């Protein structure tokens, strides 16, 4: 059966809107970051409700002010940060499935809680695939971020729909907590007892220096760590600079780094971190492998 292709057109967007899937694995030895959705739980939710494959590409939206249109009927789902969502100018409940028709316009306004909204579409976005992933990354895909006029292909869903009127409730309380579970990193034991205690008892504040590469915390941790050779790093690695800055690496992080790797964030806590905004509070809870 031949499926009709539709186009979702970006009419307006803030910075850092991108297509992401589960990313690129087993390529770090070539210097290629993993990339992929920063909050896998939210992206997984929309693909689950749409009955998509778990690796289906979604739209990751990191700033309010997105407006887009649909050329053909489809089904979408929204999760992640709680936000104001309107379809054709009328506020719509973002939980559950939404059924845009040809020419409909969807707007995502202010975020109430959280930092990233995920928009999934029936069948996933059919954008270019590079190195076994549709995740956008500069130098690998033709686009790094969406801009006005960007068009994203999808498979149209023939109308009329047979909609499900039940609304699956999306709960944001899981990412509103401040605690991140962490494991000791390779260089944890280079810290003094006092330095370790400070890191595990202090409540840190997320700075404005936060993106898909790393989140930097405002509070400094004075330390006497030695300089180290460059070593492998991964999403979730926490590095401590000689100046006391804590760098929490995200999905687009480099694959090597020279700063001491003091902690590694547990996977589900990485998804919580992805929903933190500048000014939000964080604290670390140490787990042993």
UniProtKB/TrEMBL annotation:
Keyword Protein transport: no
Keyword ATP-binding carried by entry: yes
Domain of life: Bacteria
Entry's Gene Ontology molecular function annotations: ATP binding; hydrolase activity
InterPro entries: CT_A_B (IPR003778), Cyclophilin-like_dom_sf (IPR029000), PxpC (IPR052708)
Source organism phylogeny: Bacteria, Pseudomonadati, Bacteroidota, Cytophagia, Cytophagales
SMART domains: AHS2
Name of the protein in question: Allophanate hydrolase subunit 2
Domain annotation Carboxyltransferase: ranges: 29-288
């Amino acid at each position: 059966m031949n499926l009709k292709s539709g186009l979702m057109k970006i009419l307006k967007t803030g910075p850092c809107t991108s297509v992401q899937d589960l990313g690129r694995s087993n390529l770090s030895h070539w210097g290629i970051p993993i990339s992929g959705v920063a909050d896998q739980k939210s992206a997984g939710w929309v693909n689950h409700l749409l009955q998509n494959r778990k690796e289906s590409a979604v739209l990751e939206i990191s700033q309010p002010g997105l407006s887009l249109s649909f050329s053909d009927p489809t089904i979408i789902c929204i999760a992640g940060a709680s936000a104001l969502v309107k379809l054709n100018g009328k506020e719509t409940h973002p939980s559950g499935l939404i059924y845009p028709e040809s020419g409909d316009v969807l707007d995502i306004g202010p975020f109430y809680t959280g930092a990233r909204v995920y928009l999934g579409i029936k069948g996933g976005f059919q954008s270019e695939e590079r190195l076994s992933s549709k995740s956008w990354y500069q130098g690998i895909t033709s686009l790094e971020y969406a801009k006005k006029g960007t068009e994203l292909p999808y498979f149209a869903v023939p109308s009329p729909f047979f909609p499900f009127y039940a609304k699956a409730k999306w709960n944001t309380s899981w990412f509103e907590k401040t605690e991140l579970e962490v494991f000791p990193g390779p260089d944890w034991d280079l810290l003094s007892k006092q330095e370790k205690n400070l890191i595990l008892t202090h409540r840190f504040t997320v700075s404005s220096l936060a993106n898909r590469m790393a989140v930097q915390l405002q509070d400094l941790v004075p330390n006497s760590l030695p300089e180290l050779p460059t070593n492998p790093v991964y999403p979730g690695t926490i590095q401590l600079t000689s100046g006391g800055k804590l760098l929490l690496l995200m999905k687009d992080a480099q694959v090597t780094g020279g700063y001491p790797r003091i902690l590694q964030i547990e996977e589900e806590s990485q998804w919580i971190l992805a929903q933190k905004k500048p000014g939000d509070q964080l604290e670390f809870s140490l787990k042993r492998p």
